[in-house]
Amino acid sequence: MTHEIAVIPGDGIGQEVTPAAVDVLESLELGFEFVEGEAGDAVREETGEALPQETYDLAASTDATLFGAAGDSAADVILPLREAVDSFVNVRPAKAYPGIDAVRPETDLVFLRENTEGVYAGHEDRLSEDVSTLTRVVTESASERLAEFACDYVSGTEHDGFTIAHKANVMRETDGLFRDTVKSVAEDNGIETDEVLMDAFATHVCLDPEQFDVVVCPNLAGDVLSDLAAGLVGGLGLLPSANIGPDRALFEPVHGTAPDIAGDGLANPAAKIISAAMLLEYLGYDEEADAVTEAVESTLAEGPHTPDLGGDASTEDVTEAVIDRL
Ligand code: NAI
Ligand code: MG
Prior knowledge:
Helix content: 40-55%
Bound molecules: 1,4-dihydronicotinamide adenine dinucleotide, magnesium ion
Radius of gyration: 19 Å
Distance between the termini: 22 Å
CATH topology of the largest domain: Isopropylmalate Dehydrogenase
Number of strands: 12
Shape: globular
């Protein structure tokens, strides 16, 4: 059975790292059919729309999507794309790889971030010149869906339950509902949990990341805390992510368009290539997923490295080095 994969590079270094991931997947000769879609600042300038309907439809109909990044229009692209795949969880591993000069080399975390609501539900208002408001949405159903995924994610693995990061001491209704729902689903599934206040987590994870493993959190907390973890492991060029829905999924690096280096061919493709390995695993190609992950890991350990990791190699050099190891 061949799989149709949507490829949406977007803007900036999205245009550089996405083809790198496609090259790696093509080198495996799995017979995937890649279909390209446009999104982001460039297509908005041309057509007035950051996410053309046909790109949305492509993501909503293919088995999986590889997305790069979008610039100023990011919110108008990635939020609807996550909706197109009905993604309720964003899986964000943050791992320090051997050979990389990480602030905390012992870091090995996975964030399971709620992906549909919280402060990103889109209910913002400008009441007057000097007053703006935001409505934070937390539902039992979205919290349940996330918790069930988290239970599946850890059961039968080396992961010993998961940690719930929240701020229910202040946001009693919203994060209270989130925490109670996630906890109760975990209890029903016989999964152990502990909990931590999200601000305290930020300190603890910097001082001693080893005490955490799988972290389940609301949308904004997951966004911010996983970027913080990127700082612990050697930068944004290393963090992949998967937006999982019931029938399809979208894979993207955590980073953005990196305007400071875009166009130079020097972007680190590791985050995007590991995202492609997550796509392989999602589609059931476990062996190939492991092979790609190991090829990236040994490239990170032995080089070549792009400038963000202290080297002078190009995106293409690193991509070729990964493909050579496959
Ligand atoms: P960014 O992730 O684009 O860049 C932050 C810093 O990390 C920059 O110094 C950049 O050079 C570096 N960096 C990021 N990825 C790298 C890679 N693969 N290799 C080497 N260095 C890398 O975040 P920033 O600067 O906050 O945002 C830039 C643009 O990206 C904005 O327009 C923002 O809206 C957009 N953005 C889009 C996202 C998406 O489409 N999902 C996510 C985050 C930001
Ligand atoms: Mg972010």
